[in-house]
Amino acid sequence: MSDLSAFQITQRWPAQQPELLQLYSLATPNGVKVSIMLEETGLPYEAHYVDFGKNESHTPEFLSLNPNGKIPAIIDPDGPGGKALPLFESGAILQYLAEKTGKFLPADPALRYETIQWVHWQMGGIGPMFGQLGFFYKFAGKAYEDKRPLERYRAESKRLLGVLNTRLEGREWMMGNEYTIADIAILGWVRNLIGFYEARELVDFDSFTHVAKWLDRGLARPAVQRGLEIPKQP
After folding, report:
1. 21: enclosing H helix or E strand
2. What is the pLDDT of residues 169-189, one digit of tens each?
3. What is the Cα–Cα distance from 35 to 32, expressed in whole angstroms?
4. Per-residue model confidence (pLDDT) at position 234
5. pTM score, two decimals?
């Protein structure tokens, strides 16, 4: 049986099945990237709920795995060379799981890097900008008298949706007919923008017809439906 006792995080979130990949996460747009990927690949794993309400991502145990204090993070007991591998940052985890399983990342080197570039585009653009829009539109930022920050992030979110819409014109998925980690990286954020952030009308989402159809296709996938609910709140 795998021994994960060397990892301090297991003191707070004990592994019931230490031979399985351990996921420490929450069903946020970043968190569901990894749970969707795990459901899509069929790789066995054990999910642990990290409670933001209790500030658990900033406890010593969690910080021992991810010093940045953000979800998701994993420990793969069967990492490279058969050694346990701790890993954080959702984009890095997606790429690692794709390479580990041989799924959702093209084998052709040029297409592989093209896919990875769109993952980085999500991480550098879609995630931060949509997140800021949510803060200034729905959360504490909405009380700010100065509305220039909201307008800035609204405009940039619309621009990014336009980039995405152009990319998806004539394509079923980000890479054409092949569903990849690029789609998995972006789906949760677009869903969150018009759902949880309630910004559908604010960004004129329905004008981005290719994005809307792509989102519907993605959300119809059974593995996506499951992944969006993992980990479940205790």
Report:
1. strand 21-25
2. 999 999 999 999 999 999 999
3. 5
4. 85
5. 0.96
Q: Compute the C-alpha angle 47/48/51, nearest 5°.
A: 140
Distance between CA atoms of residues 177 and 200, nearest Å: 27
Is residue 218's pLDDT more than 50? yes
Q: For the chain, which domains are there? A: 9-103 (3.40.30.10), 109-224 (1.20.1050.10)
Q: Report the C-alpha dihedral over residues 190, 174, 97, 85, rounded to 10 degrees.
A: -60
DSSP label of 170: T
Statement: residue 131 has pLDDT above 60: yes
Predicted pLDDT of residue 1:
47
Closest alpha carbon to 59 in 94, 24, 15: 24
CA–CA separation, 169 and 157 (whole Å): 18
Locate tokens 């819409």: which residue? 165
